[in-house]
Amino acid sequence: MKRILLRKSDDLNGATRNYFERLKDWLVKEDKNSFTNVSARQVLKVNASNQKRYMIALQEWGLVQKVKGDKKNGFAYEVVSYEDQQQRDRRIQTVLDDIVTKIKKSKKPK
């Protein structure tokens, strides 16, 4: 149940979230701060049209930002926050814990 609630509360759809998590893992593993669409696409084996859709969503939600480049030569991007999912999960877990506590208190005999 918790997993379903966490997934439903995510701002990103499942495919975009999976891409973003794989992207973050790759950047950490390679000790990189920035990336290009071409390099990410090659390493993560994502087709260009899907990647474009993922990157638009990530930029709209403020999870990825352009750091340099231009339209002609391409842009370099960096991840704004690596802890976005953990923060969301903690907030939801806190809410769930509060609800369970309230339910338990309301069921106690008086």
Structure in words:
With 110 residues, this protein is an alpha+beta fold. It has one domain: Arc Repressor Mutant, subunit A, CATH 1.10.10.10. The protein has helices at 2-8, 14-29, 37-44, 48-60, 84-107; strands spanning 34-36, 64-70, 74-79. It has a 3-stranded antiparallel β-sheet.
CATH class: Mainly Alpha
Q: What best-fitting shape do the alpha-carbon axes yield?
A: elongated
Number of helices: 5
Strand numbers in spatial order across the main sheet? 1-3-2
Q: Rg from C-alpha positions? A: 18 Å
Structural class: alpha+beta
Number of strands: 3
Which residue ranges are poorly predicted, with pLDDT under 50 across at least 5 consecutive positions? none
Topology:
Blueprint: H1 2-8, H2 14-29, E1 34-36, H3 37-44, H4 48-60, E2 64-70, E3 74-79, H5 84-107
Antiparallel strand pairs: 1-3, 2-3
Helix pairs in contact: 2-4
